């Protein structure tokens, strides 16, 4: 039986943990060759071992997605190892500390934007350069329900993910005639290690956020995000372009 991503080469950032690890495993199981990128080399290595032990094909690369040079190296690595590129998943991201605009520090704003947003722009630019000559390719960005709603995180995270949604729509529109598809998943509350990136929680922001977050259904799993991602990056979604797909147990409609 052939996999749903047979003969495809995929880059996945943040592949060392949570949703990125689940997507890397599922894509490899479906026949993709996976470039697994993360800052955390130890966790990344475990994910790559799990994939290769199961008979899949994945290669790790240490990347800080907020560093444009690292992003360029990641694309060069994919070409060097696998000779082509079909799928790019911009998944790596961090939380803020829930601070509202009145309390957000420049440091927090810049750090969250560097990791969550600048990274997606650098990677999208490289992906477009790789995809244009071949007139095919797909980008999947992992935003958040914080990229569509105001009551899900602090000012920095919310704005950073709204920017990812905007970049997704613009890129989908601009390159539709070139056979390139760009979509976004907006996950709800998912059981991962993301809370590790949340330091010095702002009391006022957190109290206010609990109103929105208190409505959340039971948290979902990283595998549930990977299943939606698999569809969006596969050829089965050939006519799906520019969408922001909530995968949140219905939280968005509450
Ligand atoms: P996670 O912390 O389990 O995984 C994120 C991975 O990104 C980690 O392995 C981490 O090492 C890596 N990473 C962080 N900064 C990096 C950098 N600068 N360069 C390279 N890698 C880096 O979290 P997750 O929940 O799987 O997060 C994946 C994406 O989903 C993020 O963009 C996050 O904002 C988004 N998201 C998460 C939730 C949730 O509830 N977990 C909800 C909505 C959106």
From TrEMBL:
It comes from the Bacteria. This is 3-ketoacyl-ACP reductase. SUPFAM superfamilies: NAD(P)-binding Rossmann-fold domains. GO terms for biological process: bile acid metabolic process. InterPro entries: NAD(P)-bd_dom_sf, Sc_DH/Rdtase_CS, SDR_fam. Belongs to the short-chain dehydrogenases/reductases (SDR) family. Pfam families: adh_short_C2. Gene3D superfamilies: NAD(P)-binding Rossmann-like Domain. GO terms for molecular function: oxidoreductase activity. It comes from Lentilactobacillus curieae. Keywords: Oxidoreductase.
């Amino acid at each position: 039986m052939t996999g749903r991503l047979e003969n495809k080469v995929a880059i996945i950032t943040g592949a060392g943990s949570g949703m990125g690890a689940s997507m890397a495993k599922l894509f490899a199981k479906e026949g993709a060759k996976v470039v697994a990128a993360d800052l955390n080399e130890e966790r990344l290595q475990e994910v790559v071992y799990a994939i290769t032990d199961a008979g899949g094909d994945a290669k790790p690369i240490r990347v800080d997605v907020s560093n444009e040079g690292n992003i360029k190296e990641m694309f060069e690595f994919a070409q060097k190892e696998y000779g082509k590129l079909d799928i790019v998943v911009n998944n790596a991201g961090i939380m803020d500390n829930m601070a509202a605009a009145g309390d957000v520090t420049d440091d927090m704003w810049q750090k969250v934007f560097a990791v969550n947003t600048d990274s997606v722009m650098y990677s999208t630019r490289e992906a477009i350069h790789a995809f244009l000559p071949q007139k095919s390719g797909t980008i999947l960005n992992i935003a958040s329900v914080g990229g569509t709603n105001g009551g899900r995180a602090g000012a920095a995270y919310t704005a950073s993910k709204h920017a990812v949604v905007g970049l997704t729509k613009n890129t989908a529109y601009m390159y539709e005639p070139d056979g390139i598809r760009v979509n976004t998943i907006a996950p709800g509350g998912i059981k991962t290690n993301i809370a590790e990136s949340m330091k010095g929680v702002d009391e006022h922001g957190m109290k206010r956020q609990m109103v929105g977050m208190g409505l959340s259904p039971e948290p979902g799993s990283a595998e549930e995000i990977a299943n939606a991602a698999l569809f969006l990056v596969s050829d089965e979604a050939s006519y799906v372009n520019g969408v922001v797909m909530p995968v949140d147990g219905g939280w968005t409609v509450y």
